[in-house]
# Entry
Amino acid sequence: MSAAATLLPEFDQEMARTRRVLERVPDDKLDWRPHERSNTIGWNASHLAEIPGWVENTLQEPFFDAHPPGEPPYRTEIPASRDEVLRTFDANVSVARKALASVTNEQLVEMWAFREQGRTIFEMTRGETFRTFIISHMIHHRAILTVSFRLNDIPVPAIYGPSGDES
# Structure
């Protein structure tokens, strides 16, 4: 069995869990933030929607430069609505799943780098990058979003088991 075949079920489950959270994003709270140094609900939702869009690069390119020399830095776009977030998320998940389904075991052990201004910030195998920079990163931001929901009395969906709002 290929490594990709073992990663696909986890990917599908985490994307379904993330979509359930994104479905709860309230249009009237996109600008809400729990603290002045925190990102908004809208930013976190948009970030969750964009992360699957990084899978194709991670599995097929040697690096990503978040701020290429002489160019503007990568920025998370702020969404206008939950529907925009969901459209972006669904499109990115579709492309990501195809890239993951076709990756070879050999590709997963190749090195991949995250760069800024041409300087390597970190480097690890594509497989490690997929698990940490994609999956764990999504779980982290999904948790932040659910805390923001709780602070706004927005029902938190069940994720790994029942929530205080769903059994």
Notes: Residues 3-151 form a domain with the Four Helix Bundle (Hemerythrin (Met), subunit A) fold (CATH 1.20.120.450). Helices lie at 3-22, 41-50, 55-60, 82-102, 105-108, 126-151. Strands lie at 63-65, 111-116, 119-125. The radius of gyration is 17 Å.
